[in-house]
Amino acid sequence: MSGNDSSGAAASSSNSTDLKPRRTSRSIKRKKFDDEVVESSLPTKLIPVERTRRVKRAPNPKQVTLPHTKWGPKDDLKLILAVQQCSDLALVHKCVKFSQKLTYQEIEERWYQLLYIPEVSGPATAAIATLTQEEKTAIERKTLWSSKEEAILQQVEASSQPKLEFFVSLLHQHPLVFHPARTPRDLMIQWERLRQYSLLADQTVQPLNLGDSVLNFSDVEEQLTDEELLSEQPDPVLQNELRKIDRRHKIEIRKLEDEIRQWHTMVGGPDNGPFSFDLDNETYAALRGRLVRYLMRSKEITLGRTTPTHQVDVDFSLEGPAWKISLKQGIIKYHGGEFFLWNFGKRPIYIDGHPVIQGCHSKLHHHCVMEICSLKFIFIINKTLTEGKNNDKV
Hints:
By secondary structure, this protein is of the alpha+beta class. The protein has helices at 2-18, 34-41, 73-86, 89-95, 104-116, 118-129, 133-141, 147-154, 164-173, 184-196, 217-223, 226-230, 236-266, 383-386; strands at 267-269, 285-288, 293-296, 300-304, 314-315, 328-335, 338-343, 349-351, 354-356, 361-364, 368-372, 375-381.
């Protein structure tokens, strides 16, 4: 019994395990239908996709452009028409007005390119075709006149007064001679131009009388008189401008005269020699430089550089290059019968070789040498004036 029980328990345990769902990661296979079997048995082939080639479109004749050159389609058309009319490149160079100034060699080279080089003539012809009919007609009407056209116009008498209808009939009588773009109005204007320059067949040019002397410009100028030139009415605008200029000049002259007076007060003029130290009774001392002598006629004078906004008594720029000197370099003061120098600039002032730096002062004696920025001066004291003023105070 026990064996049967054990076998039954094992069977029940196996049945319980069979009831559990099976789990797998593989896909479940199923039977294929007939049509699926047939399709799967066939070999798979890749169907090639045909690539459509891009067809290059032909260039639009209206979009044709010439390579980078001086010659445009209008200039080429002018050149072709002018050569067809006169067959002379020298005349074309003189009479035809192109879009820019061209030399005879450039015109000749372009004409040969249009004749013999297809790489140039082809694009040029295509570019000319892009011009509008109005542009072509305007160029054709202004082209040169041929010798045959002018010969027909020269036969018209100068004394006659032909109307526009006459040139209409003349144009119909010679359709192969005149250019198709010519109008009766163009013929009439050209005939009047020929008559003006005495180029018609019945016109004659009076010969120059060699006995009479031909006046040149100098002869005509000698015959003119000042009275005839001054008889014209003056221009008010010009006269007003001249008055303004004259006033400005006078103001400048007055400023210079005032400056000269100031310089004469402080500056005695160029020194005449190393021993010309004569000072008058109004001068305390003098600074003698290489070019200018400065006179000290007050008890205190300022040293430095004069500018339009800053004035000093002693302007070192009159002596030489002084751009390194301060505007107010220092002062010289007379006090108690003695002279003292105060330095306020950045550059030192040397008195007999001893530097006087910024903020310091030094005593000046008779005939001492003052040096600053390669400019040398000799300080000279007027002893005859200072001896009687030893007790003066500032």
